[in-house]
Amino acid sequence: MSISFKNLAFFIMICISTTFLSLTSCILQEQATTQENVKSNKTCLMIIDVQKGFVNENTKDIPSKVEKLQHKYDYVIVTKFYNLPNSFFRKLIKWNKFGAGSLDAELAFKPKKEAMIIKKYLYTSVNKGLLNFLKSKNIKTVYLCGLDTDICVTKNAVDLIENGIIPIVLTDYCGSNAGKAAHLNAIKTLKLYIGKDQVITGTSM
């Protein structure tokens, strides 16, 4: 069976077009993967409850340390705890500080301009809104610092890991109102909760 020159040319054009489309698809996929990798390389720091009411002799060095630290990260999340009028903190623990508008609740450092500030009324700030934000930015690892190591830092770290986010606790940038012993005991507990490789002294940056 003979093939006309016209049909042969058409066949060749189809082959060339198919090859071109295939190459274009591969290039676009590679670019998308590269962009995704760039996005996933963005770093995120969560500064937990560094508020005036949590600063005492045991934690007084933390505000200035986290204020400097925040500039090393692409995204910064700052949490602020507020004690609601009918909270269980008031009812069960008889703890009445940190009401809205109180001096206790004010931040003890200056967040950078781009920081996201989250109000929270529980030990944790890990909720659907935060998780959606992390997912939208393709953030898979969150660095944690702040107050108190034995309470809110631990709680946030555990909640992050249970939601598929790797928490890295920066112990040199954490502290506990209750003192060094409480801070060190919390570090031991954190190593059990999230793994010793996720509890570090420096910034790893």
Chain-wise SSE layout:
Layout lengths: L4 H36 L3 E5 L13 H8 L5 E7 L6 H5 L23 E5 L7 H9 L4 E7 L1 H14 L3 E10 L4 H15 L4 E2 L5
Parallel strand pairs: 1-2, 1-4, 2-3, 4-5, 5-6
Helix pairs in contact: 5-6
Number of helices: 6
Shape: globular
Rg result: 25 Å
Helical content stands at: 40-55%
Mean pLDDT: 88
User: How many structural domains?
Assistant: 2
Please, what is the oligomeric state? single chain
Give the structural class. Answer: alpha/beta
CATH class of the largest domain: Alpha Beta
Number of strands: 6
What percent of residues are in strands? Answer: 15-25%
Short description:
This protein is of the alpha/beta class. The protein has 6 helices and 6 strands, in the order αβαβαβαβαβαβ.
Key words describing this protein structure:
205 residues; alpha/beta; Rossmann fold; six-stranded parallel β-sheet; 6 helices; 6 strands; 18% strand; globular
